[in-house]
Amino acid sequence: MKLDQMRGGTNIDGVSDDAFAMPPGMRMRYDRPAPELSAYLTGYAIYAADDPAPMINWYLPSPAMISVLVEAGPVNVSIGNHRFGPLDRASLYGPTSRALRTETRTGISVGVGLSALGWSRLTMRSAGDFHNRVAPLSTVMGSALAKRLIDGLDALDDDAQIAPLLDGIFAPLFGHRHPRDDLIRAFTALSVTDGVIEMKDVAERLGVATHELRRMATRHFGMPPKLLLRRARFLRSFIRLMTAEGLADYSMIDSSYFDASHFLRDAGTFLGTTPRRFIASDTTFLRASLRARAAVIGTPTQALHGASASSLAAVPGLAQSEILRRHSNG
């Protein structure tokens, strides 16, 4: 797949080209997986850059993601004080609770977002083992999958072919139902529901003991429930501020925050700095990806990926009217 054949997402499902606007020499594209894969894969992200000079970008904390590099220079990643790289052609980014910094050069990066349910069906490994880590995909999910992804993407000559290729590779891999399938689906729905922050409340709604919820969340989501719920609350608030250019308007933060200082403490946890300093750093691709992902997939970031109505229906304590209201709000 050549850079000059990377068109940058033009006319995807009728989405305006403005959603994919990038500085010269940079392009991006988002695609939705096939409907039958949507419970397991949260989206396909393709980033491209022409300049061989090192480029720094920051990204928000997120669930697990598979990344495949095509004709790309060395890529290095920093998460907090940990450094990873140069990365393999096919890598697994584990679930993160810290913003990550990438140093990239020319080439194309293809990202495949994994839901917790997708993780549960792809590997027996605990997602908690890869919290805030990046590892070769072959060591986590096998060399066969890594090779199919690399060889398949190398053979393409048009970015419009990426989603069908990925659909075909992943479709046979999710057939084995996990024993905790229903609980994973239900907690996924609650974890992105506005106003849900207390682990005890979540455990009661799901009808499980708190220690069982903690074990399940660490195994499939990569971190304890409390941290996941805090991450979602922070990202909902931070993205509102970031996209509205209203960093001083703390009326937009989640109502469960006691005050602005409470929100800023979470910023230190999840960003490693203040919101203003983070946004002032290298966030070119991040800003563009928030806009493009929301236009194509419906939510600006993978960590807030919308739950389905059927998943919300599985959550005890949510009335049908509430389920429909939340689903209609994305």
Which characteristics define this entry?
Jelly Rolls, disordered C terminus, six-stranded antiparallel sheet, alpha+beta, 13 helices
Summarize the structure in short.
The protein is of the alpha+beta class and about 325 residues long. It has helices spanning about 115-120, 135-140, 145-155, 160-170, 180-190, 200-205, 210-220, 225-245, 260-270, 275-280, 285-295, 310-315, 320-330, and strands spanning about 25-30, 40-50, 55-60, 65-70, 75-80, 80-85, 90-95, 100-105, 105-115, 135. Helix content is about 40%, strand content about 15%.
Question: What would your notes on this structure say?
Answer:
The chain has two domains: 3-173, Jelly Rolls (Sandwich); 181-328, no CATH class. The longest helix is centred in the C-terminal third of the chain and has 20 residues, at 225-244. Mean pLDDT is 87; it is low at 307-330. The protein has helices at 116-122, 137-141, 143-154, 162-170, 181-191, 199-206, 210-220, 225-244, 260-270, 275-280, 284-296, 309-313, 320-328, and strands at residues 26-31, 41-49, 55-59, 65-70, 76-79, 82-84, 90-93, 100-104, 107-114, 134-136. A hairpin with a 2-residue loop joins strand 5 (76-79) and strand 6 (82-84). It is built from 13 helices and ten strands. It is α+β, with helices and mostly antiparallel strands.
Helix content: 25-40%
Q: What is the third-level CATH name, the topology of the largest domain?
A: Jelly Rolls
| Annotation, overall tally of beta strands | 10
Order of adjacent strands in the largest pleated sheet: 1-2-9-4-7-10
H/E series: EEEEEEEEEHEHHHHHHHHHHHH
Per CATH, which architecture of the largest domain? Sandwich
Mean pLDDT: 87
CATH superfamily caption of the largest domain: Jelly Rolls
Low-pLDDT runs: 307-330
How many structural domains are formed by the residues? 2
